[in-house]
Amino acid sequence: MKAKKILAGLALVGAIALTTAGCAGGGSGAGGGGNDKVITVGFAQTGSESGWRSANTESMKEAFSEANGFNLIFNAADNKPEAQIAAVRSFINQGVDAIVLAPIVTDGWDDVLKEAKDANIPVILEDRTVSASEDLYASWVGLDFKKEGETAGTWVADNFGKTPTNLVVLEGTTGSSAATDRATGFDDAIKGTDVKLLDSQTGNFTRAEGKTVMEGFLQKYGSQINLLFAHNDDMGLGALDAIKAAGLKPGTDIKIVTIDAVKDGMTALADGEFNYIVECNPLLGDKVAEVVKKVVAGESVDKSYIVEDQAFDQEQAKAALPDRKY
Ligand code: GZL
Question: Residue 302, SS3?
Fold first, then answer.
């Protein structure tokens, strides 16, 4: 990927978005002054699998509002890759001005992205990435999932690396860049420590499946389990029910580290049921809308924009909760 622009925190992203909107001049869309053509955007969202996804959808709908010069056509694919490909194909047939895609999985996008390119409809990726060639999309606005996994793994190595520790993992959606890259970063960070992997299975980023998989782990390993790494808060929250039903104390008998930092996860952390959370900022709407306006106006954009994350322990969660936007 070409030059990456690291965006430090939401404030910067918001400021850039506001600045761009104010000075876009020739940018299309009512919000950018100059040409008042409304930009019709087809947004292919994964579904509504988690609290993170709800916050991301809300952020995107707020940014792609009529007041900002957009006509948004929204589709949520219920976490079904084939339905999401069909939604993108439908946007092409409708002749939208641009397509925004949050790809459920990394592979399988080459054909429909080629069809969008042949129809001269630019595609901007948000959140997760695809394995298709970079020339098939204009830009990607997302997060460094590998770094998120590394941050979680480093916390584990620092706190449990020198004592025999049995780990179970609730993986995100199989084949998604979020799950793949978080696993890579986490595994790299715990290499050479006394942390031993007992089991790892996908919970598909949902509470329900996180609970079911954790029930299975507990039936198989019981109190041997010392540590749970869940690729997102929602699967960790589902696991809490299973851990309590097994008569164990989450955050004490089984330490829990997750990724996202949505309100329910941060509340569990502040209450001592989680032990560490790595943030994954879902508020990408302003930046994605800014990139779409530039692309539609024929202006150059970077190939990728990475929104920076932070991490929280229990005390930091208590302090941060009152001001959290999601
Ligand atoms: C991460 C995003 C993941 C979240 C989950 O950017 O793709 O998908 O971590 C969500 O909560 O379901």
Answer: coil
